[in-house]
Design a protein that fits this description.
- The protein is α+β, with helices and mostly antiparallel strands.
- The protein has helices at about 15, 20-35, 65-80, 80-85, 100-110, and strands at about 5-10, 40-50, 60-65, 90-95.
C-alpha cells in the first residue's frame, strides 16, 4: 500500500532570526541529507503556508510504501539541531492510504475466491 503523509510544521522566531544564508546552511546540513538518505523509500514535496494559514508555517507531503523508513526519517529530523535546538516544531501529521478502498475490495474479492 502507498501511504500519503501531510506533515505540518512551524518555523520558530529562532529560525527567522537567522540570515537567509544561515538558513540555507542549516537546510543543507540537517534537512537535505536526511531526506536524501530515504529518497529511495520516501518522496517529499515541500510547501510554504504562512501567507495562507495561522496554525503552521509550512507543510510537506510525503509518500511511501515503507512506514518504517518514514518513521526513521522523522526520528533523524528530531535528533537534528533543527528540532532539538528549537528552530522548527511539528504541528499536525495526517496519514492516509492511497485508494485504500480499492485495495480492500481487491483483497476481499481474492479471499472470496
Amino acid at each position: 500500500m502507498k501511504y500519503g503523509i501531510v506533515l505540518t510544521y512551524t518555523v520558530t522566531p529562532r529560525w527567522l532570526s537567522l540570515s537567509r544564508a544561515e538558513r540555507n546552511q542549516m537546510r543543507a546540513a540537517h534537512i537535505e541529507p536526511v531526506f536524501a538518505a530515504y529518497a529511495d523509500r520516501v518522496t517529499a514535496n515541500f510547501f510554504d503556508a504562512e501567507a495562507f494559514h495561522t496554525r503552521m508555517t509550512d507543510f510537506a507531503v510525503l509518500e511511501t510504501e515503507d512506514l518504517g523508513a518514514y518513521y526513521f526519517l522523522i526520528e533523524e529530523l528530531r535528533d537534528s539541531p533543527l528540532i532539538s535546538e528549537g528552530y522548527l516544531a511539528f504541528s499536525e501529521i495526517f496519514l492516509g492510504v492511497r485508494d485504500g478502498f480499492q485495495e480492500y475490495e481487491r483483497t476481499r474479492m481474492a479471499a472470496a475466491g
